[in-house]
Amino acid sequence: VVAPIVAAALYEGPLWLARLLGWGAGLVAAGTVAAAALFGLVMFDARGDLDEIADLADDAEQHFRDGNEDEARASLAEAVEKLQDVEAATTSGWMRLTRVVPVLGQHTNAIQVVTEHGAATAVAAQDVLLDLDRDALTISTGSVDLVAVERMQPSVAALAGASIEASDAVAAVPDAWLIPPVANGLDRVLDDIEQLTDAARRADDAVRLAPSMLGGEGTRNHLVLFATPAELRGSMGLIGNWALIEADDGNLRLDSVGRVSDLVPELEALDVELTEPADYLEHYGTSAVEVAFHDITLSPHFPDVAQVAAQLFEAATATPINTVMMVDPAGVASLITLTGPVQVGEHTLSADNARDFLLVSQYVVFDTNAERIDFLEALLTETFTRLLAVDFPDPWDLDEVFADVVGQDRLVLASTDPEEQALLDDLGVAGAFPADYEEGDDLVALVAQNQGQNKIDSWLTRHLRYDAKINPATGAVDATITVELTNDVPPFGLPDTVIGSNDQGLPPGTNRLALTVYSPHSLLASRVDGIDAGFQAVPQFGLRSYTRVLDIAAGETVTIELEVTGELEIDDYYRLVVPVQPTVIDDQLSVRVSAPAGVSLDDNGPRWQTTRTTSSDTTFDIPID
């Protein structure tokens, strides 16, 4: 946190200060020159310490990641001690005298604010590490030590408070008259402190809320849903099975496993009416008859889906639900990474083959649907039984196991408690749509819903091209959205469950889907394969959605073009947010942005473009000059 601004003063600051003094030689008294010299001497004396502090901080982080807490604490303690020495030097009586010197005083003030609050924040971070017992925070045979979590609460709260104070103090430093290296360094420091503040605030919320989420204040029920993107829905895909995990005083146990289709008759008999959330009810229906449990994932906003799942499950089973998790076959494969290979009957699923088996092979290897359903229930029972009997990696290594599936919304988690939900949103694990989007941003997103009631989407490829013309002076945006959908499924050789159309009269291998394109802009024209075609326009999530049902024969490609127009507030950056639906095959994304002559985009002139293959939400921040 401290290094960037102090480094600017050490390496480049004296040169700029000399220039300032030279330019103002006729106005600068001898005392000013002496003060500048004193400032330079003190800062150069601190230079070696700062380099060593940076090395010690790196060592502490590496020791910590390697599991060597004692070495990490020792390195951090030495770094804190040296940082406090730097703070003492920069806030000494002699240095404080430079505050009264015009121009130089602003620089002294900036350095002193950063070193003072940097040292205070470092001490708070050191206290967190001293209180941390990483072994106690690890899930061990289905249990978490809630006492160890609660023991960390005061030090984590203190770190959050220190970082907030540091952020406010640095943001309040006057930047008038600051030389460019120090001004730029101050900006970098502020960015670093704001990131630290966000992380510390999330940690504070996590250690405060985790005990209750793990049953520290009474039994909590966690519903796990299993969905498949082989039959796409707005959130992940069609739901097949569920598991119920009970948490009580930090102890987790598998309560039961079932099939969502078994819940439907009870819900229909009770004529259950949904009560929330409002956006979901408006777009997808209000009753369990209209919204069959396996289809509640129609919304791409998983927190809404979770609320609906909790209501329906409680109505069908009289079991209140506190949190809802949903995973797809890739998420199950990540769980098997922790348990080791799982054998059910003659089939063994490992972290390497589980995804493909659950996406496609399960529909081929079983002679009857009843056999397949029995296998899935046995698989989930065995997987979760073993999962709650093993020692998990510590939270930092666990992040590496689940980073991809969480980043791709293949494992999402939402809570029925608003405060807990805010934390999950902040952590980026809630599957929110559209994530990372704020009013004033540009956005384009594709959401496909399988209409053929089959498992054909394992062969669906999607190429999204976004060609935007922007005018920073007026905020005008004119864009062409081009979507190429290719159905690469073989028309024969697979069961009807995969390539059939469930009596809809379509040729085998036809992919019937409802495609929705989200944008903040108004629709000017729409075409399918070059021919004018209408799209249903509906406002949703503060955006506009444009939807059309399409039939794509096996081996064919359908091309959709939408021309849109709108206005945005475009200042120093043009920001494009591209939420990505978790599909079996990663999306291909191409973006081209053009501006009027004389405008430079990311220092590349008036045109900017990129192409990538992605399975995660993507944001482009393009500087404008």
Task: Explain what the structure shows.
The chain is of the alpha+beta class and 625 residues long. It is built from 18 helices and 21 strands. Helix 1 (3-11) packs across helix 3 (30-65) and helix 13 (329-339) runs antiparallel to helix 16. The radius of gyration is 29 Å and the shape is globular. Residues 1-46 have low confidence and may be disordered.
Outline type: globular
C-alpha end-to-end distance: 28 Å
| Gyration radius from CA atoms, angstroms | 29 Å
Tell me the major beta sheet. 7 strands, mixed
List low-pLDDT spans: 1-46
Content-based structural category: alpha+beta
Q: Widest sheet: strand order? A: 14-13-17-11-10-19-20
Percent strand = 15-25%
Number of helices: 18
**Mean pLDDT across all residues, rounded?**
85
Helix content: 40-55%
Number of strands: 21
Question: Secondary-structure map with pairings?
Answer:
Blueprint lengths: L2 H9 L1 H11 L6 H36 L3 H22 L2 H5 L6 H28 L14 H6 L1 H19 L8 H34 L6 E9 L9 E11 L2 E9 L4 H7 L7 H7 L17 H16 L5 E5 L1 H11 L2 E3 L2 E3 L4 H12 L3 H19 L7 H13 L3 E5 L2 H10 L14 E2 L1 E6 L9 E12 L4 E12 L8 H4 L11 E9 L2 E7 L2 E2 L3 E5 L2 E10 L4 E11 L5 E6 L8 E8 L12 E8 L3 E6 L2
Parallel strand pairs: 1-4, 8-18, 10-19
Antiparallel strand pairs: 1-2, 2-3, 4-7, 5-6, 9-12, 10-11, 11-17, 12-16, 13-14, 13-17, 15-16, 18-21, 19-20
